[in-house]
Amino acid sequence: MTETTSTSRQRTGAGDAPPLVRAVNVMKSFHGNEVLKGIDLTVHRGEVVVLLGPSGSGKTTFLRCINQLETIDGGRIWVDGELMGYREDDKGHLHHLTDKQVAAQRRDIGMVFQRFNLFPHKTALENLIEAPMQVKGISKKEATARAHELLEHVGLADKPSAYPGALSGGQQQRVAIARALAMDPKLMLFDEPTSALDPELVGEVLRVMRDLAKAGMTMIVVTHEMGFAREVADHVVFMDAGVVCEEGTAREVIGNPQQERTKSFLRRMRSEEQQERQDEQDLEQA
Amino acid sequence: MSETQGGGSDRPGVIHARPVPHPGRWVALVAILVLVAMMISSFMTNERWNFPKALEIMQQAPVIEGLLKGTIAGTLGGMAIGVVGGVLIAVLRLSQNPILRFVSFAYTWFFRGIPRLVLLAMIGSGVGYLYRRVDFGVPFGQQFAQWLGLSQDFTFFTLNVNQFSSTLLAGIVGLGLSEAAYMAEIARAGILSVDKGQAEAAQALGMNRGITLRRIVLPQAMRVIVPPTGNETIAMVKDTSLLSAIPVITELFYQTSAIGSRTLLIMPAFVAVTAWYLIVGSVLMVGQFYLERYFGRGFGMTRRQARKAQAKRVARPAGMGGA
Lengths: 286, 323
Ligand SMILES: Nc1ncnc2c1ncn2[C@@H]1O[C@H](COP(=O)(O)OP(=O)(O)O)[C@@H](O)[C@H]1O
Ligand SMILES: [Mg+2]
What we know:
The structure holds 2 protein chains of 2 kinds.
Chain A: E1 21-30, E2 33-43, E3 48-52, H1 59-66, E4 74-79, E5 82-83, E6 86-88, E7 94-96, H2 99-106, E8 109-112, H3 124-136, H4 140-153, H5 169-181, E9 187-191, H6 199-214, E10 218-222, H7 226-232, E11 235-240, E12 243-248, H8 250-255, H9 260-285
Parallel strand pairs in A: 3-10, 3-11, 8-9, 9-10
Antiparallel strand pairs in A: 1-2, 1-4, 4-5, 6-7, 11-12
Chain B: H1 23-45, H2 51-58, H3 61-93, H4 98-113, H5 116-130, E1 133-137, H6 141-148, E2 155-160, H7 161-164, H8 168-192, H9 196-204, H10 209-239, H11 252-263, H12 266-295, H13 303-315
Antiparallel strand pairs in B: 1-2
Helix pairs in contact in B: 2-12, 3-4, 3-8, 3-10, 3-11, 4-8, 5-8, 8-10, 9-10, 10-12, 11-12
The complex binds adenosine-5'-diphosphate (ADP) and magnesium ion.
């Protein structure tokens, strides 16, 4: 993270380099209830994609499909050129991967949950070193050094031995982000990382995410924070009822939406957003 | 930040309230003191209690041996098998493999369904009669060897069941097998009590099912598993008296009652055995306290921490101004 704190985003020339994430026609149903009805999404390296959409439109489900917390019923997802969850043989038949192989694919994808999901029986530091030690076999010393570094990046250098229960929501979410980063992921998925937080704590988490984007991390972010989307997103996707309704740059989708569903969603968000921007300014001044 | 001065201010200050009176508590205290005094006086005057003799019986060599081997080793061994087996059976029960789920269900159904006394009696006399010895090796190895005319019969070692089935170890295994069925239900409740988001977060970090279970889910489940396990352990202390059904007689109750009936010191023998059971139970309760504290780390405050925090609040009352 430190090497690229300057403005340069490591955006490779969009056309030639293969995308980091390619999702084609992703479908998912729960007990006959079609939640994703053929989602297409391409994310290039270093890009930040913001997923917008009303509650129940399938945003969480789509993120969970990318790192295989849900198995998809149709379509394909490739991350860094690798087909997720399946192996394709010479005849084009798909075979399920084993538990171990799926776990290996997940290593390179960090996920941040709405409800943090920190390990409550482990301190902040122990939360950060657990996966690198258990999964990657990194030595405790090395993992601990890296963990201290990451805690400093998220502004929690003084909290390594605090248990999650003793931290505020904003602090917990920052530890959760650091925990995901400790595995050196290629891709970070954020599922409404600030919506379980008190308004005055939203800013500190968004700041960490902004820094991460600046440092060139590839991110897919589900959020209702329009300010963040406008400022950080390279690409905004609006989902509704399990389909991609509209997509483009932040300026296009948020500034000048074409679809009626997008417009009415943004109208509803606008009143909330004004409130939140006020809060953020208050926090900045404080 | 208002700098009100203690005495001169008309703003309400520190609260020194009188506690609610509890006259009932004093009545209860007196009644209990009277009852205790009556009991002590009966202990002193009725010499059939004969406490010195009870103390003597407690220290006799066969009683101590029964306590150490049958009762204490029996409890520790039975619970060790019970806890490990129980967690294993619970994990099988929650597995995605329907065959393993069924095996787990059938185990619990059988061992929870039969009384321990019957199980131990059956192990002691029945099993040794059915199978004089058990050969450990390739399944049906002997049959194959005979059929192919080989001299090697694929048996790696042989257990003489006839001898084994009447030992203390067989009794401990029996108690453990029975206990595992109960512990399985406790462990299952513990595992189910852990938020699903915990396993998902672990999996999202690339941990496989085994690591997730061992490092993330089970340690948190222990918080729920330990208290009822303490209960089970104390029940097990008492159930070691069933070892005499094997029959294994190096066990606390058999030894003390044997002394009691031989010397006609019936009541002192009962006092001796009761005292030992209470002592063992008390030691276990202390152990449970520390286990609970260990597995409760990260979850709220311990009682001592809570007291400390409370003391701090009292020492520095908020909004006190200059008082
Ligand atoms: N595990 C599940 N079982 C059944 N239905 C589910 C499950 N997860 C999500 N759904 C349904 O899928 C729909 C989309 O949910 P979700 O992806 O959480 O939407 P969003 O994150 O956009 O609010 C909802 O109608 C929800 O009820
Ligand atoms: Mg959601």
